[in-house]
Amino acid sequence: MNAPPHDRCGPHGHPHPPIPEDIEGVDPLSASVLSAFRRVNHLNRQFLLRMSSADKGGGFGRAGVLRVLGKHEGVSQRELAEFLHLSPPTVTTMLQKMEQDGLIERWGDEADQRVTRIRLTEKGSERSDGMIVAYAQYVRSTIGSMSQTDREELARLLASLADSTAEALRQLDQPDI
After folding, report:
1. According to CATH, what is the number of the domain 27-142?
2. How far apart are CA 91 and CA 46, in angstroms?
């Protein structure tokens, strides 16, 4: 299968550097970092999609649900949505389909009937076990293949980017004074 042009290697086996985006008012280095970040996001999503399809998990979202429920039976729909960084309506739709496919069961919380809890069925547990193994393989073959020093630096840099992004979001939520 041929890789898209931006993922092919150059004549010496080294990947082509990402083409920096031309963004008005943004320095070339920041644009290059953004381009590399977007490429990593794209490639990781493709890897996870193929991995979840190979396990017949039914797609990227379902794979995440199976993985989480395999470790946290009885989680609420709200907690699941927060953990997966998905909107509650998206999770509700996904869970309805998974319930129809016999992968999950939902029930009302005895203490608070407004809360819906979720667990895997036997069929769902079998799929979850496969996803847990596949996910560990994914982490080992991508992030795990980097040196410890590079992983430590990447973790630090991504935490810094997450903090900057969270602050930018907070500023967006501030009313104009």
Report:
1. 1.10.10.10
2. 21
User: How confident is the prediction for the chain on average, in pLDDT?
Assistant: 83
Judge residue 120's burial from the number of C-beta atoms within 10 Å of its C-beta, 0-12 exposed, 13-18 middle, 19 or more buried.
buried
Contact assessment for residue 75 and residue 118, using Cβ atoms and an 8 Å cutoff: yes
Share of the chain above pLDDT 70, in %: 82
Average confidence (pLDDT) over 108-113 = 88
Output the pLDDT for position 17: 53
pLDDT of 109 = 87
Among candidate residues 139, 116, 137, the one with its CA nearest the CA of residue 69: 116
Instruction: Give me 118's structure tokens.
Output: 């979720």
Local confidence band at 177 (pLDDT 50, 70, 90 cut-offs):
low
Query: Tokens 């990593």 map to which residue?
Result: 40
Q: What 8-state DSSP symbol labels residue 176? A: P
CA distance 78 to 73: 14
Nearest Cα neighbor of 94 from 70, 66, 121 is 66
Alpha carbons 73 and 67: distance in angstroms, whole number: 10
Residue 122 CA to residue 109 CA, distance in Å, equals 21
Whether the CB-CB separation of 48 and 62 falls below 8 Å is answered with no
The pLDDT value recorded for residue 149 is 97
